[in-house]
Amino acid sequence: MTPRDPGSRNPGNPGNQGAHAPGTRSTQDPGPHAPGAPGLGSRALVMARIRRALADVPRAETPGEVPVERTYHRVHGDRGSAETVDLLAEHLADYRAIVHRADTPDHTGTPEAPGAAAAPSLPALIARLLADRGATSVAVPQGLPASWLSDVPDAVRRVPDTAELTPHDLDTVSSVVTACAVAIAETGTVVLDAAPDQGRRRITLVPDHHICVIRVPDQVVGSVPEALERLDPARPLTWISGPSATSDIELDRVEGVHGPRTLEVILVGPQTAGRS
C-alpha cells in the first residue's frame, strides 16, 4: 500500500500546501496539493492519471473485450494413473508431508507380488497414526465416513465440526482427519473445498496434526489447470503443499506457524497395495 501524502487527511493543513513527492509532478500535472487544489489521497491521484492515460484508447481495445490466448501445457509429460499417483507421493514427501498407502476401508489389501507387504486397511492405519501421535482427541467433519474411524478406540474423544466450535476449542484438539477435493501431482498440492467430508477451514488450520485421505486415482490430477476444472471457485478453497512452514531471511525454517506442524497423507485405493 502506498503511504498517504503528508496532510492528505486534512486538506486545510497550511503546513502541507504544495507538498509533494520529488519527481512525481509535470508541468501539465500540478498535483493534488498545488495551491488552490483540493487535497487528494494517493489512490485518487493514481486513478486520475490512469483515466487520463486511457482517455484516447478505442473502446474495442479494452481488456475485457480482447480474448487472451492461453497456450500453456495443461499437463507436463505423458503419465498413466499409477505414475501420476507416484509423482504425487514423491512431491508430497519433498514438502515434508508423511505419505502412507492404504487399501479401501472394507478389507486389507492383497500384495501385488509374492513377498510384497499388503497395504493396511484405512481404518487400521488411521487408528495407528493417531496412537503413534498419542492423540487424545480428533476433530471430525460432519460428512466423514464413519468407517474411517471404526478402529479408533473410544478413549480418543471425537470432536464434531460444528458452528459453535471455536479456535480456542480447536487449540486443545490433538488431530484432525479429513478427506480432500482433489490432489495435484505436479505440485504436490492437496486442495480442500469445505465439503462435508472436509469440514470448515478452521479445523484444518488450528490442530497441530492433520491426517488427509486422498482417494486414488480418482481424486488425483496431473496439473493445476486440470484441478481447476474440478473445483468451484465460489467455495472456500484451501491449497496445502506440505505441513505449515515459514523461513526468515536466513532460511531458518519454522514449522506450524500458519497451520498443522505435521501433515500425514493417506493414499487409499485397492491399486495402492504393495507399493512403497
Summarize the structure.
The protein has 276 residues and is an alpha/beta fold. Helices cover 18% and strands 18% of the residues.
Structure description:
The chain has 276 residues and is an alpha/beta fold. The chain has a domain at 81-272: 3-Layer(aba) Sandwich (Rossmann fold), CATH 3.40.50. Helix content is 18%, strand content 18%. The chain has 5 helices and 12 strands. It has helices spanning 42-53, 81-94, 122-133, 167-170, 224-230; strands spanning 98-102, 137-140, 157-160, 175-178, 182-184, 189-192, 209-215, 220-221, 238-240, 245-247, 253-255, 262-268. The protein has a 6-stranded parallel sheet, sandwiched between helices. A 4-stranded mixed sheet has the order 8-5-6-9. A two-stranded antiparallel ribbon has the order 10-11. A hairpin with a 4-residue loop joins strand 5 and strand 6 (189-192). The chain is globular and about 70 Å long. The two termini are 49 Å apart.
| DSSP, total strands | 12
CATH architecture of the domain at 81-272: 3-Layer(aba) Sandwich
Shape: globular
Sheet with most strands: strand arrangement: 1-12-7-4-2-3
Q: From the 3D structure, determine the CATH topology of the domain at 81-272.
A: Rossmann fold
What is the first-to-last residue Cα distance? 49 Å
In CATH, what is the class of the domain at 81-272?
Answer: Alpha Beta
Helix-strand pattern? HHEHEEHEEEEEHEEEE
> Low-confidence segments, ≥5 residues, pLDDT <50?
1-27, 32-36, 106-114
CATH superfamily of the domain at 81-272: NagB/RpiA/CoA transferase-like
- Provide the residue-averaged pLDDT: 82
Number of helices: 5
% residues in beta strands: 15-25%
Percent range of helical residues = 10-25%
Q: What is the SS-derived class? A: alpha/beta
Please describe the biggest sheet, giving its number of strands, its sense, and whether it closes into a barrel.
6 strands, parallel
Q: Please state the CA-atom Rg, rounded to the nearest Å.
A: 27 Å
Domain LUD: 172-268
Organism: Streptomyces malaysiensis
Biased composition (Low complexity): 30-40
InterPro entries: FTHF_cligase-like_sf, LUD_dom, NagB/RpiA_transferase-like
